[in-house]
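Example record for the data management plan.
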Amino acid sequence: MDEMMKKLQAEGNAEKNWMELWLEFKTKTVSYVTNPEIWTGLLISLLKIALIFIAARLLIKIANSALQHMLIERERSPLKFDPRRTKTIGKLMGNIVTYVVNFIMILMILSQFGVSLAPVLAGAGVVGLAVGFGAQSLVKDVITGFFIIFEDQFAVGDVVQIGTFKGKVEEIGLRVTRIKSWTGEVHIIPNGAIAQVTNFSIHNSLAVLDVSVAYGADVNEAMKLLEKTVKKHFESSPNLVKEPEVLGVQMLGTSEVTLRVTAECKPNTQAAVARLLNAEIKKAFETGGIEIPYPKVVTIS
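Corresponding structural encoding:
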């Protein structure tokens, strides 16, 4: 009987303790929720976070505008700078500013939630060291990207050939380079994989035309007609930087005499210039009566 009474008394005490704990939790919760200082502090923290976010967006926008203004001023400066390199470095600096400002913004927002920044920075350093050892290819890509930009190997807008890929450079990032081929494909190449680059946009290009005339044609007359035609095209073509030269007889073939013409033109425009010159030369030869050799079939009866 005594044991039963003790058991009932213990259960009653336990139920009483649970009720006291619940009442204490309820009281503390109501007190916390209705405490004006808590809501005031939370509101102030939210306002600070909003101001930090807005300030970061404005800072990025102002920095990008300042960079664009600096690029425009450099283009207008009497001291001429390479616009290719200026444009590429401008994009890189804009990306760096965005990353740095966003990183600082995240740290400041975390501090508003009471997160200590010292352990976060220390952890970020340890993680960065681990990533550096574990992702050596990534580090190689980043380092190679810096050297590509600052050595001015190629820039945004250049036409380059990297390995088997040829096209126009659309973007040079810290990790990858994007080039777009003339048929529309976009090739994304890790910077660390770039071993050799051929840049077609640094210097003027040379269009080489081999024009064939028949053995029965007057070679001197054909050369004079060539000189007249290419000179006329030079005066009307914006891609030619120097008057084309008629070098003379390049080769004596089995059924034709080959005359060579060279034309210095703007970078990567040699194909377009050659097509236009070929069309003009054919028209001129037809008008001047210069025979262009072609296969003939002679029937003897």
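Summary line stored alongside the record: Residues 146 and 267 are 25 Å apart (CA to CA).
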